[in-house]
Design goal:
Elements lengths: L1 H5 L8 H8 L6 E4 L10 E4 L2 H8 L14 E7 L2 E6 L11 E2 L21 H14 L4
Antiparallel strand pairs: 1-2, 3-4, 3-5
């Protein structure tokens, strides 16, 4: 459900990121630990240039990854403009300026089922309706 709610009107994600989710399929995701600056745990993301360049380089460890430490963009958080570095855990938030091909684009394999951006309330109503139609409620 997290990926479905990322593609909601209310989600704190850039429109570019939300639209990317709606165009993606399970095969477009990868389980990795690549985006670990600020958090060190496995995560599933949409494949982008950052992932491809890291894989092409042989999946080097932190400290040896392509472009490590370079600034890939800026976001505004609580009124402060913050530089995003490559391999950071921060996804492209609303107002993101930069190259999202190097951002962490969290998404589950369920992105296959997400084809539009809707209000969260509509997503909840649709889930309830579909559960009722399937006889689960």
């Amino acid at each position: 459900m997290g990926t479905r709610f990322l593609a909601s009107d209310e989600a704190a994600a850039s429109l570019l990121y939300k639209e990317r989710i709606t165009r993606s399929h399970a095969e477009d995701t990868v389980l990795t630990e690549l985006f670990n600056i600020g958090w060190d745990a496995p995560h599933r993301v949409l494949r982008n240039r950052a992932v491809s360049e890291w894989e092409d380089a042989g999946r080097p460890p932190p400290g040896k990854r392509p472009g490590e430490g370079t600034i890939i963009g800026r976001v505004n958080v609580a009124g402060q403009s913050i530089d995003l570095v490559r391999h950071s855990v921060t996804p492209p938030l609303p107002g993101f300026e930069g190259d999202a091909e190097y951002c962490c684009l969290y998404a589950g394999q369920s992105c296959t089922l997400v084809s539009d951006i809707r209000p969260a309330a509509q997503i909840v109503r649709d889930v309830i309706r579909e559960a009722e139609e399937a006889g689960h409620l």
